[in-house]
């Protein structure tokens, strides 16, 4: 179908190409890079006076209640560092380290009284990080 006015035809063609290109551009960054989910579980003893405070990467600090999880997704080549405070203890650890964790869809952490346990399947745990105090 040809429209009588060339400007109208040009406008429809431009609009169609623009919509196609923006939907393709928005989909590209996530379509070719593998992603990993970092899952952090608060397995600390119940103590209503002391809460677990977390901060991952450049995000804001937040409290993670007992038995609750925090998840964040990142690309497989992007390291992620978190800081935890459970007064008077604290630590900073690599929640995701590409050399160690690349190729795994999920990286699990269980925060416990004696330290930070790492797993790739959520059932086989290994202590990788200790708490520190001043």
From TrEMBL:
Keywords carried by this UniProt record: Signal
Domain of life assignment: Eukaryota
Signal peptide start-end: 1-27
UniProt keyword Signal present: yes
PANTHER family, A to Z: LEGUMINOSIN GROUP486 SECRETED PEPTIDE (PTHR35630)
Protein name: S-protein homolog
């Amino acid at each position: 179908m040809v429209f009588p006015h060339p400007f109208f035809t040009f406008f429809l063609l431009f609009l169609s190409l623009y919509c196609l290109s923006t939907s393709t551009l928005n989909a590209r960054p996530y379509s070719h890079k593998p992603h990993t989910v970092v899952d952090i579980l608060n397995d600390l003893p119940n103590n209503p006076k002391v809460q677990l405070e977390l901060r991952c990467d450049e995000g804001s600090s937040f409290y993670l209640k007992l038995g609750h999880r925090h998840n964040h997704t990142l690309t497989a080549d992007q390291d992620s560092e978190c800081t935890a405070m459970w007064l008077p203890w604290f630590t900073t650890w690599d929640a995701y380290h590409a050399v160690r964790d690349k190729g795994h869809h999920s990286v699990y952490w269980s925060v416990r009284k004696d330290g930070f346990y790492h797993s790739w399947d959520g059932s086989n745990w290994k202590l990788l990080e200790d708490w520190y105090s001043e």
